UniProtKB/TrEMBL annotation:
One of its GO terms (molecular function) is molybdenum ion binding. This is Sulfite oxidase. One of its GO terms (biological process) is sulfur compound metabolic process. Pfam families: Mo-co_dimer (PF03404), Oxidored_molyb (PF00174). Residues 274-368 form the Moybdenum cofactor oxidoreductase dimerisation domain. The keyword Iron does not apply. Keywords: Metal-binding, Molybdenum, Oxidoreductase. Residues 55-229 form the Oxidoreductase molybdopterin-binding domain. The lineage of its organism: Bacteria, Bacillati, Actinomycetota, Actinomycetes, Kitasatosporales. InterPro entries: Ig_E-set (IPR014756), MoCF_OxRdtse_dimer (IPR005066), Mopterin_OxRdtase_euk (IPR008335), OxRdtase_Mopterin-bd_dom (IPR000572), OxRdtase_Mopterin-bd_sf (IPR036374). Its cofactor is Mo-molybdopterin. It comes from Streptomyces mangrovisoli. PANTHER family: SULFITE OXIDASE, MITOCHONDRIAL (PTHR19372:SF7), SULFITE REDUCTASE (PTHR19372).
Amino acid sequence: MGRRLDTVSTPARLAGPGEGIGADELALATRNHGLPLEALRYDITPPGLHYVLTHYDIPYVADDRSWRLSIGGRVRRTLDLDVAALRTFPQVTARVTMECAGNGRALLTPRPVSQPWLVEAVGTAEWTGVPLRLLLAEAGPAPDAVDVVFTGADHGVERGVEQDYQRALPVSVALGGEPEVLVAHTMNGAPLPPQHGRPLRLVVPGWYGMAHVKWLRDVTVSAEPFTGFQHTVAYRLRERAEDPGEPVTRIAPRALLVPPGFPDFMSRRRVVRPGPVTVHGRAWSGRAPVTAVEVSTDGGQSWRTARLDAADGHRWAWRGWRHTWTAAPGSYVLVARATDAEGHSQPLDQPWNRGGFANNLVQRVPVECVAGSPGEAT
Ligand SMILES: Nc1nc2c(c(=O)[nH]1)N[C@H]1C(S)=C(S)[C@@H](COP(=O)(O)O)O[C@H]1N2
Ligand SMILES: [Mo]
């Protein structure tokens, strides 16, 4: 680690007791925006409302036609493809809910100092592209292949380590058909926007966001396990800095509700009128299909079962749910909790780790039920 990089790039740390969000976290929060929770109403997140997370800078790509994707390493034949060549392969469209592994981090105590997500680092898009397994079949991976490494065009320094953004998948996942990993060029029917990886990105349904490498320029088949920064240093579940930890992979179940009523501008506390209130939202899991959502209006002491929307065949996308709550004047804390077919559910107490990853603590939405002024329409 060079001395000069030491001065610009500091080690990971936890916020001290009572330490508020700092200027560096605020700068990250303004670059990397979340899904406004009211946009959970849409099956497919409208353009610009999908969350964004970019570690370094968004590469400037003036002309997609000059972009090249190389596929090499332990293969019979190296491929060098432009976007037009990629479009000659069979195309697949998949509806995929993507969530940042750091979602919920800013609510943890102590708080890992990083992108300070509350709960909104999620979105659902329809991605069109070429199944990765078809590209790899064309290249012919060697029998000793272990990992497939994906490199983006973005470059930066993180915790003192200068790097291009790189992640890998086990060869079994890269070649697998369920989920089908895509090299996508299209998001919701249009070329990828710059912030979502223009012109090419990886889409790994069911996996946390870090696996979906944007600005994809290189795919390298490797006979060695990948040991890059984003695998062995970042994106590991560890309690103490010196633990090797476990890798972050698939998305843990989560339900989010559309905050009901209307918000206060500063506190964002919600106000509803007395009477029936439809509490609704979305739930997803990258491990197994969502089988139940429960709703509480008393902070998690008692629960009601929500009605799940009909399964629509989009295994890797979130599922809608709803519940009718009859509100009476008073203070409430709404909570929703998802469970998947493997029995994974959401904790009521924070599942803490040093990076604040895969934290699927339930969402809590404080609501005041206040009668309207006399004569006011409700
Ligand atoms: N090249 C590159 N790919 C990347 C990242 C990045 O910083 N660089 N961020 C990853 C992370 S951490 C997440 S959560 C998702 C976010 O994808 P989105 O911005 O399209 O929502 O992209 C992933 N792919
Ligand atoms: Mo992320």
